[in-house]
Amino acid sequence: MSRTYLFALTDGGGTVAPELGVARRLVARGHRVTVLAEDSMAPAVAATGAAFQRWRHGLNRPDHLPEHAPYPEWELRSPTALVRQMIAHLVVGPAAGYARDVTDAIRADRPDLVLTSFFAFGAMVAAEAAQTPFDVLMPNIYPLPAPGLPPFGPGLRLARGPLGRLRDRVFGVMSQRLWDGAALPGLNDVRSAHGLRPVGHHQDQVHRARRQLVLTSAEFDFPAVLPPSVRYVGPALDGPVWASGRGRSRPVTRLVLVSMSTTFQDQAACLRRVVDALATLPVRALVTTGPVIDPASIAAPPTVTVVPAAPHAAVLRDAALVITHGGHGTLVKAFAAGVPVVILPHGRDQADNAARVVHHGAGTSIARTAAPAKVADAVRRVLADPVYRLAAGRLGAALRHDADSGLLLAAIDGPDTAGTGSRAGDTRRTARP
Fold first, then answer.
1. Which domain covers residue 389, as residue numbers?
2. Contact (Cβ atoms closer than 8 angstroms) between residue 286 and residue 256
3. Which end of the chain is less crowded, N or C, counting CB atoms within 10 A of the terminal residue's CB?
4. How many CA atoms within 13 Å lie on the side-chain side of 40?
5. Segment 204-244, tens digit of pLDDT
6. pLDDT-based confidence at 416, cuts 50/70/90?
């Protein structure tokens, strides 16, 4: 039976391909799909076959250039200031506009289900007020407070012993106060304007979703006690539209793929240090700069090729290592190909992703400011030790299994799946049987 789905998406760079991968899969099933999104996402939406509607009142960027960023995150050194600015400009600031546009879209199309990006809190409010079921897409690790999970943001590793649990409690209280203090007043104002009662914590808005769909494998994340609406549904391994159709690397031994952020995170200097490190090693490398860094600005030796983009799925078939900022999309594609990583986290969820990679032994993490000699040392270490590749292969097997399992579409488009899914529900997750 054909259904009508409304997506309310924000342009998070690496989140675009997996979130639109969900839309593409629903279109392929014959459903009617409309995507409310930023103008920067219009070509990618068109490639899914879904109908595109631009945000008229919500945040709407034409592209990823730094001059169109909602705030200069790369200039902020204080973690507290960074979180406050992110909430102000990405979560609360556009919430009323998102709610207005989604309310209009629901009245026009009467969708069976609304699917929102994690930062589109206003879209969740509008769906709740219209009594339309909504799911929240999380194309990364689970980001909300939950027993067993280290607080999200600082890249904390899994707690060990009483001191580790005390650390998590202290950081958890600080994080809750920061988020609630910055987000709750504006969020509750939008809820009130739509006839809804206030929430006590920012995460309560997300918990009102029918389902929280975590687009990764539980094996990649840390174990935790999660709400019953959470589903680990496996990654959507779709590549970005701008990186398709660019050919394939030549088969070579010890190929290193370097891939930093899709969006601007002031990553050019880091890329230059990585290239300088690779110039000292007996490897060949392919550097993809993405849509916001000019390849000509990265001077490279003959052993290093610098291009705007390349189809990572093809390149990874020849790769021995990936050097990355630690975005979830790049990591899961690397592991799906059985390739270990060296991570230089730049911000956002990247330090938390790095903590999980190190925990699983599938790579190592160093500072984004690391000197070329330290980058080269990390590359040598991961290339020389087969344990990293074995661990990457184990993660990759779980990711490929879940990506092909049908959990994603079953959670969205199938009959009620309460109590099913990859270690979902309100019990502590354990190893896969």
1. 243-399
2. yes
3. C
4. 23
5. 999 999 999 999 999 999 999 999 999 999 998 887 776 66
6. low
Q: Note if the pTM is more than 0.85.
A: yes
CA 417 – CA 229 distance, rounded (Å): 10
How does residue 430 score in pLDDT terms, banded at 50, 70 and 90? very low
Half-sphere exposure of 58 (CA within 13 A, CB side): 30
In a domain, 203, yes or no: yes
Alpha-carbon dihedral of residues 42, 14, 7, 92, nearest 10 degrees?
A: -100
- CA–CA separation, 262 vs 283, rounded Å? 25
CA 307 to chain centre: 23
Mean pLDDT of 120-127: 98
Strands 211-214 and 134-138: parallel
Q: Is 322 exposed, middle or buried (0-12, 13-18, 19+ CB in 10 A)?
A: buried
Using CA of residue 221, residue 224, residue 230, residue 232, what is the dihedral sign? positive
- The span from the CA of 168 to the CA of 151, in Å, is 6
Could you give the CA distance from residue 409 to residue 30 in angstroms, rounded to a whole number?
A: 13
Q: How many residues does the chain have?
A: 433
| Residue 281 and residue 201 share a domain | no
Q: Report which of residues 117 and 248 the model is more confident about.
A: 117
Instruction: Name every residue whose Cβ is closer than 8 Å to that of residue 340 and which is 6 or more positions away in sequence.
Output: 321, 322, 334, 362, 363, 382, 388, 389, 391, 392
User: Across the chain, what does the average pLDDT equal?
Assistant: 90
Per-residue pLDDT band at 427 (split at 50, 70, 90): very low
Can you read off the two tokens belonging to residue 114?
Answer: 């609304």
Give the pair of three-digit tokens for residue 177: 């106060």
CA atoms within 13 A of residue 14's CA, in its CB half-sphere: 25
Which amino acid, residue 227? P
Tell me how many domains the chain contains: 2
The two tokens of residue 309 are 């983009």
> Can you tell me the distance from the alpha carbon of 344 to that of 325, in angstroms, rounded to the nearest whole number?
5
The structure tokens listed for 57 are 């009142």
Q: Do 40 and 146 have their domain in common?
A: yes
How buried is 146 (Cβ within 10 angstroms: 0-12 exposed, 13-18 middle, 19+ buried)? middle
Question: For position 381, which CATH number holds?
Answer: 3.40.50.2000
Which carries the bigger pLDDT value, residue 415 or residue 329? 329
C-alpha span between 8 and 362 (Å, rounded): 34
